[in-house]
Amino acid sequence: MFAQTAEANPPAELNAALPEARRSGATRLKMWGFDIYDASLWVTPGFRADRWAQRPLALELRYLRNFDGEDIARRSLDEIRRAGPVSETQAVQWMREMRGAFPNVKKGDRLLGVYEPDTGVRFFHNGTATTPIADPQFAQRFFAIWLGAQTSEPAMREALLGK
After folding, report:
1. Per residue in 115-161, pLDDT tens?
2. Are the C-beta atoms of 8 and 23 separated by less than 8 Å?
3. In 3D, which of 95, 141, 87, 83 has the Cα closest to residue 115?
4. CA distance 131 to 87
5. Greatest extent of the chain over all pairs of C-alpha atoms, in Å
6. Are 74 and 99 in contact (CB under 8 A)?
7. Residues facing 22 on adjacent strands
8. Cβ distance 49 to 146 under 8 Å?
């Protein structure tokens, strides 16, 4: 379902990070009949869906429920592992980094991740920077949760990519 409530204009922190970004698509994640979040994918000039990992982009999540940051990190790691193996050492490191990046969120809060190929990802909570993760492998695996061919939500992927 397209997220009618998602903002069509990029948030200020996105304008600063990726000034030429435009929204590619938007959708709403529902699970077991509950609205979870509205998602918008912001892409830069030259973006191609089949090569999404090669260009800077941003994913904005507007939460429709309250969630603990620890639960967001744990679910993210579960989704990363679902798409491919992760060593235990790597899992521990990524969990530690995600705990710093993902605060508790309330209904109406926004998390924005800015993907920078070959560098990593910067995260923002309601416009304020949280902990960046300077790990290109993590960044690609994290954004693949939504954009990769192995996503658990293929309809969401299609909507975000504007298909």
Report:
1. 999 999 999 999 999 999 999 999 999 999 999 999 999 999 999 99
2. yes
3. 141
4. 22
5. 41
6. no
7. 43
8. no
Measuring CA to CA, which residue among 56, 41, 32, 31 is closest to residue 3?
41
The CA-to-CA distance between both ends of the chain, in Å, stands at 13
* Token duo for residue 127: 């416009």
pTM: 0.93
Bridge partner residues of 42 (DSSP): 23, 58
| Residue 154: count of CB within 10 angstroms of its CB | 10
DSSP the chain: ---TTS-SSPPHHHHHH-TT-EEEEEEEEEETTEEEEEEEEEE-TT--GGGGGGS-EEEEEEESS-B-HHHHHHHHHHHHHHHS---HHHHHHHHHHHHHH---B-TT-EEEEEEETTTEEEEEETTEE---B--HHHHHHHHHHHHSTT-S-HHHHHHHTT-
User: Which pLDDT tens digit goes with each residue over 22-44?
Assistant: 999 999 999 888 999 999 999 99
Are the CB atoms for 157 and 151 separated by under 8 Å? yes
Tell me whether residue 9 is exposed, middle or buried, using C-beta atoms within 10 angstroms of its C-beta: 0 to 12, 13 to 18, 19 or more. Answer: exposed
